[in-house]
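Entry for the shared binder. Reason: the reviewer on the internal report wants the predicted structure included alongside the sequence.
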Amino acid sequence: MKLYLKTKDFSVSGESFELHWDPSLDMLVTKPKPTNLAPYYESEDYISHTDAQNSFTDKLYQSVKQKNLKNKIQIIDNQRIKSKSILDIGAGTGDFLVTAQRAGYTVTGVEPSAKARALAKQKGVELLFDLGELNEKQFEVITLWHVLEHLPDLEHQIKTIISKLTNEGTLIIAVPNFKSFDANYYGTYWAGYDVPRHLWHFSKTAITKLFQQHDMEVISIRPMWFDAFYVSMLSEKYKGNKRYLISAFFVGLWSNLKAIFTKEHSSLIYILKRKK
């Protein structure tokens, strides 16, 4: 591996990290990896675990999240699922599973954060601590919405996740794309790196190769249009731009326009199935 760029944890600790490029997978790896990642999530600034609506950024995040939830359910509906059983890994505060329940799905969720699980419980969703509590149970659909990049021991985690999928099941993974225009534009300041919480940074090649090793194939890739705007907004704030909203809008818009041709959106949703 060789050094790709240097960045830092802009949202919580301010500590410096490096991203190293793995040429065999076309993937970036965060170094050093802290031995204890928990403190980097224990912050009101880590909105995925708090449901915060304190700042304009928080409120915008929650608004975009509601729109994305509908899109996620539509993607799953389009797969023509038979048993309609969903396992959501890294379920956060449970909003996706609440939405899935309302759409007629039987839902199960896993979330290591006690704080997030407590918020999910208030919404009527009981989340498990880890995959070990599922025993031999399998699911028709498994989703990881911006979660794969957080998982330590990546190969083992992928193998475990696939073991929970039925033979005809569908695996849906959303991750940031470091090949996008906004990633290249912001470089060190790109919020999609989110070190050290994001341990891995994927390209299309990386996702394809990682899952090929487990007899899984990518059957479809979908863009997450809103991510270019939200990530650009955070990136502009990290740069110290007081007019971050205006700049972020134009960078996000240009990133999405370029991605129409390059197919390298700020974040991508991968739909995978077992090879036949």
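Summary line for the report: The radius of gyration is 18 Å.
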